[in-house]
Amino acid sequence: MMWQGQGGGGCFTVGACLGVLLLHLLGQAEGNAQKRFLEEKLKDYDVNTWPNSEASSGRGKRSSLPAGVQLPETPPEATTVKIQMFINSFGSLNAANMDYSIDVFLRQHWNDPRLSFNHTGKDRFTITNPEMQRRIWKPDTYFNNVKDAEIHQVTMPNILLRLYSNGDILYSMRVTLTLACSMEFENYPFDAQVCGSSISSYANTVDVITYEWVKVDPIQLPDELEIAQFDLLSHETESFTQHFVTGNFSGLKVHFSLRRQNGYHVLQTYVPTILIVSISWVSFWLDPNAVPGRVSLGVTTLLTLTTLASGIRAQLPPVSYVKAIDVWIGMCMIMVFGALLEFTLVNWLANKKIVNPASKIFKIPKAVAEDVEDPAAKAPKTYMNHARAFDRLCRALFPITFFVFNLIYWPYYLTEQHKALQVPD
To answer: What predicted TM-score, i.e. pTM, was given to this entire model?
Structure first.
């Protein structure tokens, strides 16, 4: 027998309908059985004691022993929590705020013998009920250098709690973290940074919780991982113990070695400033008396360079030391301002009268000399030829000086960038 749906889009048999219903009933029965099993397991479960504590392991039940019978004194063991991180995405480093963001799957593994089982026909349970999850002991793990954090809630809370038959527990969650990173900007934008994160227990000392990285792939990275403006060169993990007045706390660290890519700053900073400096040299080809043209050209290039430098400074924190970009902008300022001062000098020479021909300030070198003024001319003589000769000298002097600066600047800072992350022998 077959039924036609109201929409006319298809039909189904009685057998198919019964099959779907049977699967639904089996799933519901399995869910009820799992709930009853967990309720039974959690009936005497104390969420406030750690898995290997004296109370949870039965070593504290000495009062029920017969008179004269004593157990050897065995101190409670700390619970070992093994950590693994999968870096889903790596946000760009924010130089102004000195932080960065990551989207990470934080996976925590530990063993709770109170929750072991061997009679259900299954080797693991995935606990999705939030109320059940809250009734199971979990480590109070926190990130030491976190500024902001968010557990993803779409479309459901991104939290996994899985219980294995031997008592092993997997507790995984997807979180987006904004983490502080102490950065050094002496070589910016040719800098290399080491940023990382550290986790530990907030309230439980080393006699309660000890953290370890998993042995295989403690930090997992996707093959297609990309970071804006940076190359991720390597990562390292380590364990440590924090010593406070409240006790000693176990913790873990991961360090990411990052090197800044130069393409963005070459196109957005260096090429524009080179063009601005080059434009300022055009004034050397203008007449010494072309005051409006040479003044407007010098002032415009200087203001443009100042505006660009202000935009660069807005991207960085107000540190007190000199950065590589400061050296570059400073040299460009000197070149542009020098061209403006050069015009002041040549304009003064071009309009200064020679009272006594024998009292000329200096003689013009033959290499830059023009036609000598007619000694018989009746008009008052000036140092115009000297001004034009000085212009011709600056046409070569300024580009050569800037070129020599580039020959020193680029090799030095590119070498420093590659040396920054080299580990000494």
So the answer is: 0.78
